[in-house]
Amino acid sequence: MKKLLTATAATALMAGTAFADGHGKEVKIGVILGFTGPIESLTPSMAAGAELAMAEVTESGMLLDGAKVMPVRADSTCVDAGAATAAAERLVTSDKVDGIMGADCSGVTGAILSNVAVPNGVVMISPSATSPGLSSAEDNGLFFRTAPSDARQGVVMTEVLMEEGIKEVAVTYTNNDYGKGLADSFQAAYEAAGGSVTINAAHEDGKADYSAEVGALAAAGGDRLVVAGYVDQGGSGVVRAAIDSGAFDTFHFPDGMIGAQLEANFGSEIDGSTGQHPGTDSPGVAKFSEMVGDKFDSTSPFTPESYDAAALIMLAMQAANSKSSADYKDKVMDVANAPGEKIYPGELGKALEILKSGGDIDYVGATAVELIGPGESAGNYRQIVIDGGKITTAKYR
Length: 397
What we know:
This protein has 397 residues and is of the alpha/beta class. The protein is built from 14 helices and 16 strands.
């Protein structure tokens, strides 16, 4: 900070306050994810990924003249907009976070954005909220996501199924913004490619018995059942009922269904089933996996995206020379995209040093980050197949 020896006491006080607001010796980043709820088996690895980036930056000592980064966790529940909003409000008003890594599920993310982030002017970067509706949400330039929109996932699902020779499917989706947005996106893309959707029906989470839903799906028929649900909730309930009744024996799983819990729930019962979730085979994901080692599951869906979301918040702060969202929100797209030196996991200290000296970076990160349009990922996907009861990689798209 420049010092003017002739400044008045009042001017000096104002400058000191601005410095304290912009720098401080501590940066707090909220980590709001569904630690309870229908994707609770995925969120521990997601949080760990984000917090790994924060620890890396703190250890470097390069952020805003040596600021330490403190993660503050909060539970979005994934599905309860009221609870998520209250949790986010506490992050902002009580914990005084300087940015939010999250939320996770689309409905609660939209609620936090409109009810907390925008009114309080706080940047939030979601690693996993994929509803197409978020692309046009009023966000005052505060909202970004390192996961692609489900408008893209619907196209990828179509490509996978068509290449598998599956021309007719039944679709069930969890009855919320994520499920309906993805189901509608998929149906539009699939039918445009010549496929037929026999039924596109919602299911409610939290039920003990899904035999009625499966009965309707079976009556409509189809070569495969597409389950746009949650692995820790109704999605798995529908799959269990379908297997037990013999209605379907192979399935197609979008991102909310893919995780270690899917293997635990069904094992080889779902062999031959397919799916996809955001992912890449870029050099960055290999570096990320090497960094993580056996600390947590680096391949769990949205875990690399969480590392990248947290990293982008901190890099944007450095580019703006401020931890104030009003200052650094305009730097997120700059640090995420070309031009500049490419930055991979494990190189955040190097990136901070380049930015401090006035240089440019192109953050590639763990997921080959490229932010387009309204600040969302352009979209890379890992295509999976269940083989021997295990989730295996077919290819990347």
